[in-house]
Amino acid sequence: MKHKLKGEWSTKRVWLDGKELLPEKSQAVHNHSPDGFMWGYGGSGPAQLALAILLEVYQDPKLALSRYQKFKWEFIAGLPETDFEKDLQLFERLKDFTPHTEGGEKL
Q: How many CA atoms are closer than 13 Å to the CA of 41, on its beta-carbon side?
């Protein structure tokens, strides 16, 4: 399933397919970052964002929890520390994901 991910650096707001992700939902599952989302490195804010994205896509907390740390390191940590828009290919219910650039090339 292909998704559009957008982040606004100055506010740390993130949208998935045009819907704003709020940290509270993912914090209720595992609170890595009381301050919310971040990206561009491998810390607690990126972990919170990775978990929020996978919770939204999979709608399955167990599945999201089993995959979000790998997703954080392989995709979220590599995002630029600025505003971004990226295409993201996540295969539902499968073990892997394939991040893509805006042009569709695999990262």
A: 5
